[in-house]
Design goal:
The protein is mainly alpha-helical. The protein contains 7 helices and no strands. It has a single domain, classed as Orthogonal Bundle (434 Repressor (Amino-terminal Domain)).
Length: about 100
């Protein structure tokens, strides 16, 4: 991801406070995102704010990768880190429309 893209995506998503509330993390954590949205947070960020994984981290995901594929991968790897329930993120996304 180009450095200029991350600040733009953060602002389009509503800023650090909005993102931190949606993902259940501190605002400080968002300011530490030097290389982009962390891999483990990409699916939740995409669901909450309507981006594709390729929009958020083109260095990790090509245009064919969907949020659903990422969630399945996390489930298959039994990633214990799920900050916010999927249903809550879907509500956030529907409220944004």
């Amino acid at each position: 991801m180009k450095q200029a893209q991350l600040p733009q995506i953060i602002q389009e998503a509503g800023g650090p406070l909005t993102i931190s509330r949606a993902l259940g993390i501190s605002r400080v954590a968002i300011y530490q995102w030097k290389r982009g949205v962390p891999k483990k947070r990409v699916p939740f960020f995409c669901i909450a704010f309507g981006y594709t994984p390729n929009d958020v981290r083109p260095d990790l995901y090509d245009a064919t990768v969907t949020v659903e594929k990422l969630l399945i991968r996390q489930k298959l790897h039994e990633d214990p880190y799920i900050p916010v329930r999927l249903s809550e993120l879907e509500k956030l996304r529907s409220n944004k429309k």
